[in-house]
Specification:
By secondary structure, the chain is an alpha+beta fold. Helix content is about 50%, strand content about 20%. The strands form three sheets. The protein has a six-stranded mixed beta sheet, covered by helices on one side. A two-stranded antiparallel sheet has the order 1-2. The chain has a two-stranded antiparallel sheet with strand order 3-5. A hairpin with a 2-residue loop joins strand 6 and strand 7. The protein is elongated, with a radius of gyration of 41 Å. It starts with a strand and ends with a strand.
């Protein structure tokens, strides 16, 4: 038996000692230990169960979202979309995922159209070139003057085919390839393009009024934009009439004095491979103005096409202001 005692002095040489068993105390403590053990075990079990239930409920949408994305990826169908649900994080993630799928689907569709249109456009010149080459393989069956004419046609068709391939390559470029953005003197690019046009088309008169203009962009692509605008104007401009080029207040305009755009064609002028009825008998691929719009979009510019009040086609490109901290500098106007 365990005892708990106390000793106290009563007088010199005399002391009293009292003792009491501790069994009652140990019995109470033992009972409290059992109760504490039961309560602790029950709390741990209930916490684990509630944690499992809560985590399972919280992760159920994530598991469902993972399964849906895996099924979509296995299907390989970009037209399918995920259910967006509510305004929680899973719903937001689904909306972002669907927006990405929209962009992927649009990009894949654009690539399919490009391949289909390119194959269609290449088929006719290749067939014509093959026919001329087959005729040239039998030089004894055609007169010398026709033989020379066929050779000239072959050279011309080869040049047109090369231009078409170049146009297709530029039309397939991605807007994300703007890796060489810099300050560009747009007026100098326009002036160089005008000189090129005068050199390649001696009978064409180009009248220009240019202001010093600096834009953010890629020089090579801006040069292609201007060259395509001028090439389109040269194609339609009648002999004896000038092509008018203006660059003021960050707006570039190119105007010819041809027949202008018909009401039916005007909404489709910048569509890829679109050619009006009048243009189908002329050289070209229908990509020139499409590339103009693509380059303009890449530079944050706005391109429009309209008919001039007194006749002819008028195409304008409005460039955005420079980035903060940059300045055009003093503007100078000049006629070229």
């Amino acid at each position: 038996m365990q005892l708990r005692g106390i000793t106290a002095a009563m007088a010199p040489g005399v002391a009293i000692e009292l003792a009491r068993p501790v069994d009652e105390i140990q019995s109470v403590l033992g009972g409290l230990g059992i109760v504490l053990l039961i309560v602790t075990g029950t709390g741990v079990a209930m916490g684990a169960g509630l944690g499992w239930l809560v985590s399972g409920r919280a992760l159920r949408p994530v598991t469902a979202f993972t399964g849906e994305t895996e099924a979509l990826a296995d299907a390989g169908d970009l037209s399918q979309r995920l259910p967006e649900g509510g305004d929680d994080e899973i719903g937001r993630l689904a909306r972002v995922f669907n927006a990405t799928l929209d962009q992927l689907e649009a990009s894949a569709e654009a690539q399919r159209r490009l391949v289909a249109d390119a194959s269609h456009e290449l088929r006719t010149p290749l067939a014509s070139l093959r026919a001329n080459v087959e005729v040239l393989q039998q030089p004894d069956t055609i007169p010398p003057d026709e033989h020379a004419a066929l050779l000239r046609d072959v050279v011309q068709q080869t040049d047109e085919l090369g231009a078409l391939v170049s146009d297709i390559a530029h039309a397939g470029e991605r807007a994300q390839a703007m890796e060489e953005i810099q300050d560009v003197r747009l007026d100098e690019i326009v002036q160089a393009s005008i000189e090129r046009t005068r050199r390649l088309s001696p009978g064409i008169v180009v009248v220009a009024s240019l202001s010093d203009t600096v834009v953010d962009g890629v020089p090579e692509r801006l040069a292609r934009l201007v060259a395509n605008l001028l090439d389109n104007a040269v194609k339609w401009n009648p002999q004896g009439k000038p092509i008018e080029v203006h660059l003021h207040d960050r707006m570039l305009s190119v105007r010819d004095h041809g027949r202008g755009f018909s009401d039916k064609d005007l909404p489709h002028i910048f569509d890829r491979f679109y050619r009006s009825t009048a243009a189908r008998g002329m050289p070209g691929s229908g990509l020139g103005l499409s590339i103009v719009r693509q380059v303009a979009d890449m530079h944050g510019a706005t391109v429009t096409a309209a008919n001039a009040p007194d006749g002819g086609a008028l195409t304008t490109v409005l460039f955005p202001p420079l980035s903060p901290g940059e300045d055009d500098g003093p503007a100078e106007h000049r006629e070229v």
